[in-house]
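[step 3/7] inverse_fold.run input=structure_tokens len=199
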């Protein structure tokens, strides 16, 4: 699969690069846009301040430009936390999107959004202060109404960004379980593509 993987508010750090390497080792092509233009941050507060300074519209513009060279082939959009919200926005606006892999984050869904059975997989901590139960319930229903085929996996006791080994949130067991399921999801999309090309 062709995957575009967006970083969290911390920036394009080692955890994102390692995740991309893991995906490449499984046979996927991966692009990791640097929406912060080389800056990384040690705290979520610094990262969120940078995000706010850049602005949502500019971040989305950078994301679209980064994804555009590969979008004609059909992309799986993926991201961590802030990057997941960006990935969701782009995937729901791309009729050629092959799938959406959300790690630790979701986003608002624009009115009148429709996708044709877009495969979506979300991995999130339980509880997660950024992705509350009420929010996730509403998000799940809205994604279903929009036509997405959604799977949600929750990890009890894990921190928000539990796949990042450099953060206090890290939970090795939850992270490895997430990657096992996520790689299976991507393999299933590959299988669907193969069936489609044989038809």
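[step 3/7] decode complete -> sequence:
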């Amino acid at each position: 699969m062709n995957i575009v993987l967006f970083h969290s508010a911390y920036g394009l750090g080692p955890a994102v690069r390692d995740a991309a390497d893991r995906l490449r080792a499984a046979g996927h092509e991966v692009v990791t846009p640097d929406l912060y233009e080389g800056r990384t941050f040690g705290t979520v507060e610094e990262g969120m301040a940078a995000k706010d300074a850049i602005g949502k519209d500019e971040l989305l513009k950078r994301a679209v430009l980064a994804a555009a060279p590969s979008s004609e082939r059909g992309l799986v959009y993926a991201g961590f936390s802030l990057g997941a919200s960006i990935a969701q926005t782009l995937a729901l606006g791309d009729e050629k999107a092959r799938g959406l892999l959300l790690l630790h984050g979701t986003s608002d869904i624009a009115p009148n959004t429709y996708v044709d059975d877009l495969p979506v997989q979300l991995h999130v901590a339980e509880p997660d202060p950024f992705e509350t139960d009420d929010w996730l319930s509403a998000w799940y229903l809205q994604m279903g109404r929009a036509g997405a085929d959604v799977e949600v996996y929750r990890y009890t006791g894990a921190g928000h960004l539990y796949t990042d080994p450099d953060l206090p949130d890290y939970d090795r067991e939850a992270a490895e379980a997430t990657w096992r399921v996520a790689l299976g999801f991507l393999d299933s999309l590959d299988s669907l593509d193969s069936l489609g090309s044989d038809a």
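[step 4/7] annotate
The chain has a mean pLDDT of 94.
The beta strands are 2-6, 29-31, 76-80, 99-103, 119-126, 149-156.
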